[in-house]
Structure formats: structure tokens, C-alpha cells
Amino acid sequence: MSGRKQLKLGAFMRPASIHTGAWRYPGAYPDANFNFGHLKRFAQRLEAAKFDAFFMADHLALLNMPVEALKRSHTATSFEPFTLLSALAAVTDRIGLVATASTTFDAPFHIARRFASLDHISGGRAGWNIVTTSNPDAALNFGLDDHMDHGERYARAREFYDVVTGLWDSWADDAFVRDQDSGLYFDPARLHVLGHKGAHLSVRGPLHIARPVQGWPVIVQAGASEAGRQLAAETAEVVFAAHGHLEGGRAFYADVKGRMDALGRSRDDLKILPGAFVVVGETVEEARAKRAHLDSLVHEESAIASLSIALGHDASGFDPDGPLPDIPETNASKSGRERAIALARRENLTVRQLAQRLGGYAGLAFVGTPATIADEMEEWLETEGSDGFNVMFPYLPGGLDDFVDKVVPELQRRGLFRREYEGTTLRDSLGLKRPANRFFPEPAAPQA
Amino acid sequence: MSGRKQLKLGAFMRPASIHTGAWRYPGAYPDANFNFGHLKRFAQRLEAAKFDAFFMADHLALLNMPVEALKRSHTATSFEPFTLLSALAAVTDRIGLVATASTTFDAPFHIARRFASLDHISGGRAGWNIVTTSNPDAALNFGLDDHMDHGERYARAREFYDVVTGLWDSWADDAFVRDQDSGLYFDPARLHVLGHKGAHLSVRGPLHIARPVQGWPVIVQAGASEAGRQLAAETAEVVFAAHGHLEGGRAFYADVKGRMDALGRSRDDLKILPGAFVVVGETVEEARAKRAHLDSLVHEESAIASLSIALGHDASGFDPDGPLPDIPETNASKSGRERAIALARRENLTVRQLAQRLGGYAGLAFVGTPATIADEMEEWLETEGSDGFNVMFPYLPGGLDDFVDKVVPELQRRGLFRREYEGTTLRDSLGLKRPANRFFPEPAAPQA
């Protein structure tokens, strides 16, 4: 292994890829949302390629898009993260397993327990992607008429994190003595009852499962707002960032790592991994052609609905084969409209192509040969744009196979990515410390 | 296969057995609560023996027993059911996977989604053990100062069941057309939005996962109270009963199946499976000696605490090697005291032996040779005491191996138990119908 800074690579997965046209791509498995066997093979391929983690996208409601778009998207059905990742834990050995769980619509006792259990079952490979759930339809599935506001959701999330990590620390690492001769299973002096009573949560504890293998599962976050960045700087060990270009990535990186400096946290204790949509070809032209074909599989009806939302303007009357006309100002998100307009101009897209890009995937993308993709990843790593990426495959299994068979070896050849796992846990892979137990910082004193 | 009525067999499991002394038994795995590999081998052995289901015991708090007892019991730590059973789903093919989930301390949207996901991952092997959670300590882990009273818990449970089954029916079985050519992933006319608003719950839906493979996962219950029996007669497909003797089992069987008659449900649509603790020996004497040794491993301090609770009287002053003295009447549960006294008299137990029996396992037990155990099971089956059993192994792995290697072949030889699975799902094994979708009872009409 070279002494170069290493890329960390997560795979951000949906069963049929995050791209809404992917299930129609030649060779795709349109039944992947129902078929665990496909997911098992994907995870095993990623593990053979030494990926840090398999990261499962999640939502707590049907995505709130117009039914004309929804009915054409494979996102309407999917596995639940804990059941899926636990099943994957049983058929993999080293890859990390990151599940999304909401601090707004679940109880900290359940969340603490489930992640601890996944960490034990997987031998220390669990990660918790903390989300506050921004989809207002989710509230209606959990008995709430109104969605909790952003500030309150973040205040609750911060307290929720304290409770969950406190519950994980219920037992000292050496609490379970299991002395068959004397009949003592655990030492009651090494058990802590949390007794939390806070502004949002009241939880007694203790957790009735031993401390996780990793101490705590790895803490992952994705919030990009002011509150989200601050929560990440205080608590996160991985941030799933979302930036369309290197400049924005570098600004975010500097901001969040700067907040860590101010808090006295080491910069190495948090890995910033933007999502990156990667399309691999033998030539740049071939990669672009693959992407264009994939985008063309986003149904026009659904695509135009996405474009209308982005523009804040009904796009159904536009000439689909013409350039994007000038759009009058509206009350819709200015940044969304400006991004759409800039994208159309930059890539010289027709209305249909722009609509299909937005309806498929329009964030950061590396589209090229293994060498050009590795060049871009290297530039992000070396200029502090990121510590690696959460890779999104354009379609499955082909897009994953291309990355694993062609891009990973190129990254390894350059000394930017591991050839073997560093250890057995997700913390080992990411180079993160095992947290001390806040209630039992030291091992038990030897008995006299 | 003979035409005889068949026994249904579940395995009611804790990682180190339900007996609190089991972790100390010769050959036991004291680390089983932390070691998924053991559980995987247990499940695979049970599947090779054609068990109907692997049923995971569960609680939502540390068991509320005195710390002197608790510290000696392996029940202080365990895997969470969904993570464990999902992992087992990936390493088994036919055995059912029954998870306990509480209607008092969880949200119906989460429960519906997780069981649907487990059912998809396992190819139709999930079962939901509906519990209302009677441990008052659980409330304190979920932000409630007072435990919900019994009647309110059951009223909520009934509504919760309606919501969960309604969410499972969100999608017609043929909703997901996945037509790659036209780009239609699902037919919106085959999607139902539940829109439930009831006395206890408000849940919009739809569930964002396809209808479970089994239509609905198998509904399991264990309540023995008046409200519990009625809920079972209305909704359950398996009842986990608890009776110390055949007479009580037959009365319960007649009562619950009679309630089904009154409701117009077929008796075959519900299987009554009492828990049965089975200790196998080459001779009856050897089996009894194994049990006596196992009971002797319940630590005396913990055992006397259990006895005091059962008697409603401090037993710590009694001569442990003497017979049970006369106990004055108290306010404690009369039935518990009477059961303890009757047990001591029937088996001529010393105070210590009685205490260790109560601290270990004191319910229905079959202790004998494969032939005497099969005789007892056959009698229960043929006299309408039960439709089978939830077997509890006294210690692991030895107690499980004894049952699988010796009792199962004897049951098969008598034509009382399958030699091959009847199909691929838990419903196939149990002989239960796949429920119709209440919103889409018929397949979609063919398009003109």
C-alpha cells in the first residue's frame, strides 16, 4: 500500500439504481425491488472490489411526485433498510452496511437497539445515516397532521443522537463476564441506566443488548443546511455531501472541517463523501452515449413533470426538440431554476433532454473512461473537495460491473484505493477510532 | 405422507435457550447472545429437521427481575428480532421466521413495512407475533411514565392489526406491471391509499413496498386473557398457548376454536401451538437427571428470588434442603402460589429444587425418551389439546440436537410430522390460506 491519501468509497444503492430510467436499461433487472438475490450479488461484487460500505437509500413514504412520474419509477417499492442490510450481513464479511433511520419518526430505543444488533450480527460493520426526514408525506404515515418544522427536527435530532449513543454505552465493554462456574453472567457495576429526560425525549434504558462491536456504529449524515452542517461537525463521522461541481465541494469541505477545528475535533475523524454518478465507457464518447441512452429511458411524461417542478413553470407546452425558451420569474426556488437553465445551456440540451436529465439524475457525475474518472476522483481528493465518494451506478448490474472491473483497478494502480480491507469493521476501513464508553472510560479494576 | 393429522412444530428460541441456567450447561455456548454463527447453525439444523418456524422471543426492556437474579441470566442481552431473522432469512430457504413486534410501542407503518420486507427477502416465510407488551419497564424506554392499561392496549392492538393488514393490501398483487417497453412500472389504478383515521391511530399510506409474498405474513398471538382470546379468535392464524397440562390445553383449544365457530372462521385457519419444554434421554431416568442437573445450574440466590415472587412470601429463610413449609395467605397471586405448592408436592421437591425449577422453566414439559415424548405429543394432537407445539430446547446446542436427531424421526415414523416441506412459504407449511386483498379481491380486468 502506498503512502498516498486513500479514497473511501461507499456505494449508494437502490435495488435498480437511483436513476429512474435504470429499470428499462438493456440488461437491467426490473424485478430487483422484489428480489433479494440480485441485491446479494451486488453486495458481494462490491465487497470483492473492497468498497467501504453498501449504503441503502430510504424514505418513509411513497415519494411525493406527480402520479404520472411516480407510476414510471421503480422507486415506488423497495426493501426496508434493516431487513435488507441484516440479510446482506449474513452473506458478506467485510463491507460496511449503512442504514438510514429517521430521528423524527422513530424511537431512540428502537434505533439504538437495531443498530447495535446489526453491528453484532455483522461483526462491526453497521453505520447509521441520521436523517430528520424532509418528506412531509411521511408525517401523515405516522399520525401527525403537520410536519415538524426544520429547526425543531434538528433540535430533536441532536438530543436523539445523545440518547442513542448513551444507550449504546449502557454496558461496559467488559460487563458480560459469563463465568459458567460461579454463575455470574454480567457484573451489575458495569451497567449504566441512562435515565434521560430532555426537551424532546424521555428514555430510561438500559439497552438490553451488549455494547456494539464498534463501540458505536459509524455516524453518517447528509444535511447541507446550516443546522445540518453544524450537526455533522459535532457528531458525524461520514458526511454524504451533494455538490454538482468541485468548487462547491471544496467550499463545503472547508466549511465543515473548519467547524470541526472550532469544536476541537480532528479533521480525520470525519470523512466527506459526495454522491457521484459514474458512467464508464471505453471512450468518453461511449460513456456519454450510454448516459444519453439511459436518460432517454426516462418517460417524457414523467420527465416534463420533473422539469416543470424545477422551473416552477409548466413545461408541457414547450417544443421538446427545441432549446429551453426563456422562463419568466416565479416564486419557485430560484436556485433550482437557475441550475436547470445553466445545465441546458452548458450541455446544449433540448427541452426533452433537459427534462430527462432532471427526471433521471442531475447531480455530480463522472462520465468517461476509467482514466478520466480516476483523474476526476483524484483531483477531488487532492484538492480537498472530498475524502472519497458515495458512488451511484447509473444502471444495474452493468454500471456496477463497469465500475468494479474497470475503475477500481485503475484507482488501485494509482495507489488511491485499497487492495485489501484494513481490518474487520467499518471503522477499520474508514480509519475511524472506536469511541470510548462515556460511562465506563476504563476497564474494570481487577478484583482483589 | 400418511393421511393422519400433522403436528406443526415451531422452535421458540433464545440464543442460549429460554432456561436461565442453560448457559452453564456442559457444552453450552455462553457467548451465543453475541454470536450470530451459533444462531445460523441452530436455524439450519431446525430447517434440516423440517420445523415450521424459528420463533424469536423478545422484550422491549431489560427483564424486570431483581438484579440478584438478572445478573445470573443470559436474558440480559440478545439480538433484536428483525435484524436477527433477516440475517437468518439469507442463510435458510424454507423455515418460517416469526418475529415479535409490539402494538403498544411501535408505529403500524414501520411494522407493516418491516414484515413485508422480511416476507419479500425470505420468499414468503415471515410471521408476526402480535404482542401488546406487558412489561411496565418498556413504557419508560418509550417516553411514557405510565403503562397503558390492559383494555386500552388491546383496543389499540385490534386497530393496529386493521391498519397493518390494510397497509399490506396497499398494492394489488398485479400492480407492478414493470413494462420496460412502455415505461410503465405500476398501474395507479391498482394502488390503494388507506387513509385510516381511528380512535388510536391515524395513518395515510400507501405502504411503499409491494404486497408481501404471502399476501400477509402469518399472524401469531399469545394472549390468554379474555381480550387476548377474542383477538386471537378474530385475527390469529397461530396461537402460542401456555398450559401446564393437557386438561388446561384442551379447555383453551375448545374455547378459542369455539369463538372461531361463532365468528364464522374455519377452525383450520388457526393453529394452536402451546409452548413445550422438551428434555430427551435414552431413558426417562436419564432425561429427568438431565433436567435436574440443568435446574441445579440456576443459581440459588436467583432461584430463591423467583420462589419468593411466586409465593408472595420471602423464601430466603426456608431450609433449602427441606420440604416447602406451609405458607400463610397473602395478597400475591393465589394461582401462582398454588401452582408452586402443587408442583413441590407432586414431584416431592426440596425448597431449593422448587426454587430452581421456577427460576429455570416451570411450564409444560415433556421429559422422557423419544417414544414417551412422541406419545405425549400425539395425545395432545389427537385429543384436541393442540395442533402442534412451540418447542423449547432446555439447553443449546445439545437439547436441540437431541430433539432433531431423536424425536423428529420418531414423529416422522409415526406419520405425525412431515419429511419434506409442503411448499416454499410459511403458509404452505402451516396449511394456511393466502388472504385475499381486501381492496383488490380480483385480478385486474384485461385491457381492451
Structural overview:
Two copies of one chain form a homodimer. The relative contact order of chain A is 0.16. Chain A has 448 residues and is α/β, with parallel strands linked by helices. Chain A is globular. In chain A, the strands form two sheets. Chain A has a ten-stranded parallel β-sheet, with helices on both faces. Chain A has a two-stranded antiparallel sheet with strand order 5-6. Helices cover 39% and strands 11% of the residues of chain A. The first copy, chain A, has two domains: 336 residues, TIM Barrel; 82 residues, no CATH class. The interface between A and B is large, with 75 and 75 residues. Chains A, B: This is FMN-dependent oxidoreductase (Nitrilotriacetate monooxygenase family). Chains A, B: InterPro entries: Diverse_substr_monoxygenases (IPR051260), Luciferase-like_dom (IPR011251), Luciferase-like_sf (IPR036661), NTA_MOA (IPR016215). Chains A, B: Pfam families: Bac_luciferase. Chains A, B: Keywords: Flavoprotein, FMN, Monooxygenase, Oxidoreductase.
